Amino acid sequence: MAEQFLPRSLDRLLDAFRPCFTTRPLATFVLLTVGLITAPARQTVCGMFTAARMRGVWHHGRAHRFFATARWSRDHLGLTMLGLVVGWLTPAGAPLIVAIDDTLFRRTGRHVHGAFWAYDGYRQVTIDQLKLFRGTTFVVAAMVVELPFLDRPIALPLLFRLWRPGGPTKPALARDMIRLIAHARRDRRIHVVADGAYLCTTLRRLPANVTLTGPLPRHAALWGTHPESAQARPVHRCGQPRVRGQRIGTSDQLAATTPGSPVMVTRYGRTTTVTVHERRCLWYGVFRSQPIRVLILREPRKPDLALVITDQRHPPRTSSSATRSGGPSRSPSLTPNTTGAGEARNRTQQAVERTAPFAMLVQTLVVVWYHLAGHSPKVVAERRGRAHWYTTKTHPSYQDMLTKLRRVLIAAQYRADLPGEATPEQIHTIRLAWANTAA
């Protein structure tokens, strides 16, 4: 059983998920988590099952039933992971930065639930090819955190929604996840960062402890706030008071009429000076009478970046830097398919909706474990010793974190105090895990 060879550092983290399952699914969850981490090759459901050394002990149908029919909630799982991330990776009382984005997992087959042709900007193609692929599209809510051993923020996936044409829109799915996070963390202020596709009327009314930040379209019509909107309604006047003031125009026109101020900005380890034009105004087409702040960042020889921020009380430095990172599907250190999130081959509705989120949650678990028990300066030094072409590598990548945990798990499985001698297959597994760092 997995509990017999789990290291204590990982066992304590997995114990937090005990309320999410009954006894039988809990054991399957632990084994599939270990199998997904230790699997050296294809991380399908059967690949997780085999890597967990359960072949011949359990029937492989138990692993498939865990995703297809077992009673557990991926939202409950994600909110439990949210508690771990907030408790261990964020300062006490600090605002939380949540990035919203969607990502596509390539799937083939006519009977795969939720598989459609969609645009995937993350994929690398040649100039004459379109970034269109068939697969399942998930809207992801990820927590953006700063870790002491990394030089830039990292986005950790937490909640997921499968998007299908004809169903709820992507902003509607994002709104549901934002409300879940806001309800679970009422003690924190939450800054939501999203791209332009999510800045629409659907996200106009969010919980009181949530603010929204994202890019402003170049054609957005901006208006000044009317003085009467902040005053009490006059008794002698009929009808509603005016909300919009004078028309400002587009973001370019706002920058031309608003004085700028130089600001030092650090992005990806580089500090530069940008000119920031900031103004409080209305984006009436989306937020109606709710005042917003528009920031326009200008740099020489680079296109302008226009941001819209609904937060009226705090400086937008953290939200601006998170917007630059690109959201969960383009996080600097974590990509959606690193741990085999897109390699599952199941087809039924519940299995499809659970398998990819399960793999991405395991990625988050790996980062949390590495922060608590796995980090050492020797990790980067060993990696540079094995791969001499990494001349500028100074921080661990997610692959380094995964390899470190994989080694710890395999060493715990074959430690000396277990009865019996190691078989040739077990010795080959250990050697293969150690060799993965040089690949």
Short description:
The protein has 439 residues and is α+β, with helices and mostly antiparallel strands. 35% of the residues lie in helices and 21% in strands. α2 packs across α3, α4 (61-68) packs across α10 (349-374) and α10 packs across α12.
Question: Overview of this structure, please?
Answer:
With 439 residues, the chain is α+β, with helices and mostly antiparallel strands. The protein has a domain at 214-231 and 238-309. 35% of the residues lie in helices and 21% in strands. The protein is built from 13 helices and 12 strands. It has helices spanning 8-14, 23-38, 45-51, 61-68, 74-89, 170-184, 251-257, 284-287, 317-325, 349-374, 377-386, 398-413, 424-435; strands spanning 96-106, 115-119, 132-145, 154-163, 190-194, 210-215, 222-225, 244-249, 260-267, 270-281, 292-298, 305-309. Strands 1, 2, 3, 4, 5, 6, 9, 10, 11 and 12 form a 10-stranded mixed sheet that branches. It has a two-stranded antiparallel ribbon with strand order 7-8. Helix 5 runs parallel beside helix 10 (349-374) and helix 10 packs across helix 12. The longest helix has 26 residues, at 349-374. The chain starts with 7 loop residues before the first helix and ends with a helix.
